[in-house]
Amino acid sequence: MTLTATTPTATTGAQRAASRLATPWWREAVVYQVYIRSFADGDGDGTGDVTGLRARLPHLASLGVDAIWINPWYPSPLADSGYDVADYRAVEPLFGDLEQATAMIAEAHGLGMRVILDVVPNHLSDEHVWFQAALASAPGSPERARFIFRDGRGEAGELPPNDWTSHFGGPAWTRAVEAVGDDAHPAGQPGQWYLHLFNTKQPDVDWTSEDVRAEYDDVLRFWFDRGVDGFRIDVAHGLTKHADLPDTGEIANPHRPFGAGDHPFLDRDDVHEVYRRWRAIADSYDDPKVFVAEAWTGDPVRLGLYLRPDELHTAFNFDFLVSAWREPELRDVIDRTLAAHRAVGAPPTWVLSNHDVYREVSRYAREQDRPQLGGEEDFTGRPADLEVGLRRARAAALLMLALPGGAYVYQGAELGLPEVEDLPEESLQDPVWFQSGGQRRGRDGCRVPLPWSGAEAPFGFSERPDGAAPTGQPWLPQPASFAGLTVADQDGDPTSTLELYRSALSLRRSLEALGDGAMEWVDGGDGVLALTREPGFACWVNLSTQPVALPAGAEVLLASGPLDDGDGDRLLPTDTAVWLRR
Ligand code: GLC
C-alpha cells in the first residue's frame, strides 16, 4: 500500500530540479502549519515554543515540506490564542524571544524550508499601546481615530451604534469607560463604543487611518528584514468597513459575506487597495516576499480578485476544505477553483484543515450529506466512524497533493489525528466557548498538543533540553487515545499516515508532473475522480461504494490504502486514492 517504485522514469531528478528552479517556490509549495502553542514545548511548561520548534525542524525537513507557516507568536494576552496581538515587533515570552525567533528562521532556511508568519490586520489586542492610548484619550482624538469608536444609539448612548454581531457570538461592540469620571460615575462614565468583529479584547483598527496603514507597512518590513519569506493574512476579507457602518439587518447571516463587494464589513471591494500597497512592499525585496490570504469569500471568483497580479500571491481554498466527501461536489469545487485561478494567473492552493476547523478525520467520519462547514457545532452529536474518516482523510491527502498548485498541511494531519471531541469543559479556552455562553465548544479540539512519543501524556510534547521532567501539563489535555498515534509510533511503519505523507511529499518533489501546472479529468466511472497530469501521471480516487478497476498497465506509485487484487485486475477500494505512472 505504500511506495512500490521510488525512481520515476518519466522524468529524471535533474529535469525536475531544473523545472523547479524555473517555478517560483510559492506556486507549488507544500506549507506545514505550525500552531506554535501546541507543536513542541522545549522548556517543559506545557506550552509549545520556539525552542521546541527549533528542535523539531529536522523532523519537518525530513517530512518533505517546503515551508512552515507559524501562527501568531507575538506578545499577547492570548484571549484568542495569539490573534490578539499586543506588540508586533517582539515574541510572546511564553514562546521565546526575538533572538530565538531570528535564529529559528535562519535554521529553517538552512534546512531548505521557507518561513511564513501570521499578520493580523483587522484588529489588535486591547492591551496594545495604541488601544490603551485610545481609551485614555478623548472622543474625536487622533488616538481614537486608529480604531472604530462611535457614540451609541438611544437617548444616553446606551445602545450599540449598529446591529453588527461578533464572529464569536454576541454584539460586535463594547462600550468604553471614559477616563474622566463624574459624581455619578466616579470610576469613569460610560462613553463611546468600539467595534470588535471578534472578541471584546480584539478592537478592530480603522483602515481609513494613514497611521494604521503606515504601521502595518512597517510591521511587514520589520519581519521581512529578519528573513521571513512571507505572511499569512488573517481575516484578509475583513479590514475595511462601509463608511456609514449600516445595519446588516437584511442579511440572513452577516458572517457569510458572499456579496458583490459592498457588504458592510466583509470582502469589500475597497480592501484590495491595501493588498496592492502590500504587494509593492513584498516586491521591493531581491528575493520577493509572498502572501497567502485567509479570505472566506465562499465564491472562487471573488477569491480570485485577491490574487490579481498586483495583489496577493495565493489564498487558502476553503471551498475545498468544506466540500463534502462526494465526487460531484469535489469535482465541482476543483473545476471552479482552477477556472477562477486561471483567470488571474495565480496558482490554487488546497487545504483540508487548520486551527479553526474540525479535523478532517473526524469530519469525514460523519455522513457526507452536507457541506463540512468546519465548526464543531456541525459535527458534535452526529455518529462518527473514525476508521472510515481516516481512510478518507488519507485519500483526500493524496488527492490534494496531486492537484495543481500548492497545499497546506495542518500539524497533526500527517499523523491522522482525529478531533479531540471530549475535552473537559473546564479545560476549554477558546473565546467562542465563553462568548457563546457555553453553546459552542469552539476550536480547542483541533488544537491539542501534538503527540511525539511515549504511551501517555505529555507524549513527548514537553521536553526540556537537560532531560529534566516537565514542570507543567500540556495547556490542553491530550487524550489517552493519542497512544499509538505518536510520531515515534508511526516512524518507519509503512502503513502509517506519517509514512504516507513522507512518501507523497518525496514523490511530489521528484515527479515533474506534480506541483504547479495543469490537469485533465479522465473518465474513471461513476463516483470516481480520475485526473491526469503530464508527463505520465494519474491520480484516481474512489468515492463510490464499489471497488473500481484501475487502468490496465499503469504502475502504482503510491496508494492511500490496500488495493484489492480482483480477477487479474487491480481494484481500487472505496475511499482510497492512488497515484499512478501511466
Ligand atoms: C482567523 C484566525 C482565527 C482567529 C480569527 C480572529 O480566522 O484563523 O483563529 O480567531 O481570525 O483573529
Write the layout of secondary structure elements.
Layout: H1 13-22, E1 30-34, H2 36-39, H3 50-63, E2 67-70, H4 98-110, E3 114-119, H5 129-136, E4 149-150, E5 173-177, E6 190-195, H6 210-224, E7 230-233, H7 272-283, E8 290-293, H8 300-305, E9 314-315, H9 318-322, H10 327-344, E10 349-351, H11 360-364, H12 386-402, E11 406-410, H13 431-435, H14 487-490, H15 497-510, E12 520-522, E13 528-533, E14 537-542, E15 548-549, E16 555-559, E17 564-565, E18 570-572, E19 576-581
Parallel strand pairs: 1-2, 1-11, 2-3, 3-7, 7-8, 8-9, 10-11
Antiparallel strand pairs: 4-6, 5-6, 12-13, 13-14, 14-19, 15-18, 16-19, 17-18
Bound molecules: alpha-D-glucopyranose (GLC).
